[in-house]
From TrEMBL, chains A, B:
<feature type="region of interest" description="Disordered">
    <location>
        <begin position="1"/>
        <end position="29"/>
    </location>
</feature>
<comment type="similarity">
    <text>Belongs to the class-IV pyridoxal-phosphate-dependent aminotransferase family.</text>
</comment>
<protein>
    <submittedName>
        <fullName>4-amino-4-deoxychorismate lyase</fullName>
    </submittedName>
</protein>
<dbReference type="GO" id="GO:0016829">
    <property type="term" value="F:lyase activity"/>
</dbReference>
<dbReference type="InterPro" id="IPR050571">
    <property type="entry name" value="Class-IV_PLP-Dep_Aminotrnsfr"/>
</dbReference>
<dbReference type="InterPro" id="IPR036038">
    <property type="entry name" value="Aminotransferase-like"/>
</dbReference>
<keyword id="KW-0456">Lyase</keyword>
<dbReference type="GO" id="GO:0005829">
    <property type="term" value="C:cytosol"/>
</dbReference>
<dbReference type="InterPro" id="IPR043131">
    <property type="entry name" value="BCAT-like_N"/>
</dbReference>
<dbReference type="GO" id="GO:0046394">
    <property type="term" value="P:carboxylic acid biosynthetic process"/>
</dbReference>
<dbReference type="InterPro" id="IPR043132">
    <property type="entry name" value="BCAT-like_C"/>
</dbReference>
<dbReference type="InterPro" id="IPR001544">
    <property type="entry name" value="Aminotrans_IV"/>
</dbReference>
<dbReference type="Pfam" id="PF01063">
    <property type="entry name" value="Aminotran_4"/>
</dbReference>
Amino acid sequence: MSKSTLVIVDPATPLPPGTPEHAGRLRLADPDQPQVLVSDLGVTRGDGIFETFGVVGGDIQAMEPHLRRLLNSAVLLDLPELDLEALERAVRLAVAEHPDDELLVKLIVTRGVEGTGRPTAWAYGFIGEDYSPRRLDGIAVVTLDRGYRHDIAQTSPWLLQGAKTLSYAVNKAVLREAARRGAEDVIFLSTDGYVLEGPSSTVIIRTGDTFVTPRTDQGILEGTTQHALFGIVTDLGYTADYRYLRSEELTSADGLWLVSSGQQIAPIISLDGQQIPHDPELTQTLLKRLQSRDS
Amino acid sequence: MSKSTLVIVDPATPLPPGTPEHAGRLRLADPDQPQVLVSDLGVTRGDGIFETFGVVGGDIQAMEPHLRRLLNSAVLLDLPELDLEALERAVRLAVAEHPDDELLVKLIVTRGVEGTGRPTAWAYGFIGEDYSPRRLDGIAVVTLDRGYRHDIAQTSPWLLQGAKTLSYAVNKAVLREAARRGAEDVIFLSTDGYVLEGPSSTVIIRTGDTFVTPRTDQGILEGTTQHALFGIVTDLGYTADYRYLRSEELTSADGLWLVSSGQQIAPIISLDGQQIPHDPELTQTLLKRLQSRDS
């Protein structure tokens, strides 16, 4: 039995008023068979958007924040209006049809075949990698220049910074650069020295009793897991703050983490070869709370 | 009959020594049917490379420069070694099987399905848009900030500038921004004021009897059509030069063009709303020579 599920949404745009909703709109398909046309702009231009939903114990985490972020990406890319309700049902169906209750669902919306103006969309449920080593032993991380100033999203919105697009070749290339430097992940810095985000995660820094994450007006994504984490740490009596973080602040931190839907949370134990303080007990507390959160 | 052809190359990497080459390696497939898996990194991450070959009168233009550039992109993306000879045969087959003799062939190589280490590759032959209005009437162009310094490829190679990747969502977004500004195409500028390239073309500037194009050590592509054009203008008695171009030099030019495999050459008649000198006769001469070139 295949360990993945695929639900195709057609159309991904709202139905004309009065059209009866019918079962045919969501279609279960075989993920081991080709399902995408070579003329789809998602393939030819990385012209589309995505979200990855974590599923723990059968519960889909952060549904609403993910859909809100998808919508924001769609606006940044001038995509046609999407039917978020249909996309949400596709994610739920991909989970319901999957034999496991710990999985990831990747929801993808592409601009579709050139000239049709008709987005292609699907939800793909699959088993993620084993994140235990990252969560337990921590990760070595390097900082890399993203090449942009921290205010790029304001000055040059056509560069799509802050949108979660399918054009992620750079996000994969930096992981290979990290591996060449003996590390497992990356924190992007702006050219003017601000801390941005990981290639597929949000940066969390602890200084004393305060947890901080970079402000999202720097062309970075609003972290769905970070949002949940801030609720948790506040509940634990810590302070949580969004602000501009200078790169120098990373190495003087009392704790550093990357958080994302798949790994949930991974402690950074070294940054650019320099050791970072690590409190395994605190990380395990945060991990357990993240995994058992309600939504 | 479908006005497009599709040739799938499997494998796209060299065969083990001693393996007999067999017909099954290149496979004609139906481009109107899905041929790509949803788990292919070309779709999920725009993690792949491409080249678009112009075909005029049945002749494939600039085969060798395109393949050399593809190889350069593959190196920048750390892709496995490719079998360029098999890829070349796929392009030729896509042309041979196509009913027309004026077409474009898009050769795509993706990193393949995650974890397999096995690239996916295909050649897709199709009829391009009608470029006559661009070539004859010229185009309105706007300059847009690419967000990077001109030396980004040297300082931060992980940003993949200078590779022709499938992560081209920005290259499409800037065309929408151009349309909002009443223009049809874009010239990218570096943050430090240098002229770079178009989103899918090379910039050519004429100053007196000299044709100039920006140096390619600025994270931009080596233009295959520009290369052919430089041979032509030299043959016509002009001088041709590669150098750093300041953005101010664009508006004081005696002529500006964008060149690429599809459109071949299009004169720029206005830049950021300012009129640019245009010599239709010269453009037509260059177009005819580009279309009738040997290779």
